[in-house]
Specification:
This is DUF3841 domain-containing protein. The protein is an alpha+beta fold and about 220 residues long. The protein contains six helices and nine strands; from the N terminus they run E-E-H-E-H-E-H-E-E-H-H-H-E-E-E. It has two domains: about 5-125 and about 190-219, no CATH class; about 135-190, no CATH class. The two termini are about 25 Å apart.
Amino acid sequence: MPNFPVTSARADRAVPAGRFGYDLKADRLLLHTFQPEEALEELQSAGQLIPDPSRAEPLFADAYAWMFREMDRRLPTSGDGALWFWARITREYLVDSSRRHRGDVLLTCRIPRERVLLSHFSDWHRALGCTPHVLELPGESEDDYGARLDRIWDELNERKRAAGVLHKGFREWPEDLRRDLERSWEQFLDPSTYGRWDTVQATAHVLRAEDVIDAVRID
């Protein structure tokens, strides 16, 4: 049987006080996830939680499919979907999220680093929008970065126009164009590019009961 504690708390008290001490280089990463009550029941009865791919937003199917492929390529595990976690987030944000997750369960976990794929939360939206991710170069000014970004966008639109897909969805683009865009997204999977205070998310194929250190039902 799982041996992690399960408690209940109001939304404003579900998150403990103080700093969490996130360390993205740790052997076991400190992670948080909000899950429905049935997920807790699955952890308690089956000893593990696996994702339900049908919960992925259909509007962003291409971005999710890419993330799933990257997980299969980079992680020793496999699966049909992903469980999503916060790997570095402010306490204030977790408290605010708890207010939106009344009736759910906040799980605090420590998962071995090799079973987790980290990604930059804000930059992940480049994949959701099927747009290029462009890192700033060391020492690059804001104006120089803006000019370079404009050139990249102009080149992308010209390639789309030449392929006859300027106003068509991502999956209708030529394979080489999709591949180049996806290659730019790989940069936000690299923790060495993250700023000290950047919000970081994580995905995993499975959550095991022994990974969970605390569970709080949010009243």
